[in-house]
Amino acid sequence: MALKLYPIGIQTFERIRMEDKLYVDKTEYIYRMTHNSGKYIFLSRPRRFGKSLLVSTLQSYFEGKKELFKGLAIERMEKEWGEYPVLRFDMSGGKHQDVAELELYLGYQLEDHEKKYEMKSHREGVNNRLTDLIQTVYKQTGKPVVILIDEYDAPLLDVAHDDELLTNLRKVMRNFYSPLKVNEAMLRFVFITGITKFSQLSIFSELNNISNISMDKEYSGICGITKEELLGQMSEDIDHLADRLSQSREEVLQSLKDNYDGYHFTWPGPDVFNPYSLLNCFAKEKIGAYWFASGTPTFLIEMMRKFDVSPIDIGEKELVDESDFDAPTENMVALTPLLYQSGYITIKGYDEDSQLFVLGVPNREIWVGLFKSLLPNYLSNRTPKGKVAVAQMSVLIRKGNIDGALKLLQTFLATVPYCDNCQYEGHYQQLLYVIFALLTDYRINVEQRTSKGRTDITLETQDHIFVLELKFDKTADEALAQINANRYADAFAMSGKQVVKVGINFSVKNEKNITEWVKG
C-alpha cells in the first residue's frame, strides 16, 4: 500500500489541502509572482507538469482562502491577505474544434461567470462579452479583477500542422483576449499558461507588456518537482519505494533520476522531475512510463511529417541559439521550438564560448515513449510484434549473443508488410534506429562521434561494447572494413569490456531486410 495519499489526476488546490493529499509547496513562487511590478504573466511548461494546479493555487490565494495555506511558505510571507474576484478560463476543453465550435465553447465559459454575477444581458461577440463581464464584476465588487487563463493554446496545438485552420482559430482567440488590454485599469492580475509560445502579435496583439517567465531562473522550479523538493519533502516516499522494490535508497534514486528527471528550463538551473510520472510511481509503487501513457503525441507526429523530421534528428543532442527553441511555434522554420516546449527535448547544457544551449531528450521515459510512438510509422499493424521482438533482442544481447539478436530482427522484418512508399535507404535507416533506440537496458549511441568519424550504432552492455556499421545494398564486409579503416573501436579500448565489431548489410532494392552480417 502507498505511503500516503497522492493527488493523481487532481488539479484543484483546495481539494488537495482539504483531503490532506501530498502537496509539494510552490507557494513561495506564488508570493513572488504576485508581488512584483508585472500585471500580465505568461508561463509555458509541458503537459501534465502542474500548470493547472498552479492556476488553482493562485485562485485560492486571490479568493483569500488563508486557511488552505496553513503551514506553507506563503503563510509566513504574506502580511496582508486580500480577497479579489477571480475569472478563471480553462481552454483545455476546446480541442479538435472548428471556428464555430470554438466560439460556442468560449461562450459557454463566459456564461458560467455571467450567471454567477447575475448578468441579464450582454453584447454580441465573445470579446464584447468578456469586456462586459470584467466591467460588471468590477462595479459589483468594487475590486480589481483577477483573470486566470489555463492552457490558452489547447484549441491551437492539435491543428498546428494545418496552416489554414490554425490561422482562423488564432483570429478567434486573439479577438477573445483583446479586452485584457482595454480593461487594464480594472484588472489586478492576469496569469496565462500554455504548452507552446505563440507570438505576442498573433494571439495577444494588444498586450505588449506580458512578462514571459518561462525561462527565468527565479521561476525555473515553479512547476514539476525539483531534486531538492524530492529529497526534502518526499524523503520518506523514496525509502518506502525502496523497501517495496527490495532495492537500496541509492538504487531507487538512480532509477527515478534515469526515468523521470533531466528537465531544465534555464541554465544553470535545478534538475526538475516530471511530477505526473513521479507521483504515479510512488502511488503504484512501480517504475513505469506514466507520462506517455496519459496521452499520445499525435500533434507531434503530424508536425514531424510537416517538417520532414526523422527519429535520428530527435535523438541527437544539438547546439542551438536561445531564439531557435524559445520561439513562437507558428513562425518556426524547424521543429525544435515545439519539441522543447512540449517536453520532448530539454536544456542539457550551455556552451560559454559559443553562447549556445545544448538540447537533448530529458530521460528514459521520454526516450522510450517517443520511439514507441514512432514505431507504427514503420511497422504498420506489426507494431505489437515489433515491441515483442525488441524485448527478445534485449535478452539475447544481455547474454552477448549479437548473432541471435540480429537473426531475430531479420526474422521479424521478414513479416513486415511491403510498403510502396518505402523504396529509399532513409526509411529503413530510421526503422533500424528506432528499434535499436528501444533497447533501453543498455547504453545506445547512434552516429556516435569518435576521433576518426561517426559510428552508426554503438551498444554497450555490462560486459560488451558492440560497434555496428550499416550498409545498404552493399556488403557486410564493406561495413566491417569501414569500422577497421576508421578505427572506430579504438575509442573503447580502455573500457575494460569486450569490443565486438559488426558489419551489417541491408537490402533496400530486393529483400527489404538484413541480408548478412559479419563480426570482427
Number of helices: 24
Q: Strand count, sense and closure of the main sheet?
A: 5 strands, parallel
Secondary-structure-based class equals alpha/beta
Side by side, the strands of the main sheet go: 2-3-4-1-5
Range of strand content: 15-25%
The overall pLDDT, averaged over residues, is 88
Radius of gyration: 26 Å
Distance between the termini: 52 Å
Helix content: 40-55%
The beta-strand count equals 17
Mass-distribution shape: globular
Low-pLDDT stretches:
none
Q: Assembly type of the shown chains?
A: single chain
Tags for this model:
43% helix, 520 residues, five-stranded parallel beta sheet, alpha/beta, five-stranded mixed beta sheet, 16% strand
Any overview of this molecule?
The protein is built from 24 helices and 17 strands. By secondary structure, the chain is of the alpha/beta class. The strands form 5 sheets. It has a 5-stranded parallel beta sheet. The chain has a 5-stranded mixed beta sheet with strand order 11-14-15-16-17, with helices on both faces. A 3-stranded antiparallel beta sheet has the order 8-10-9.
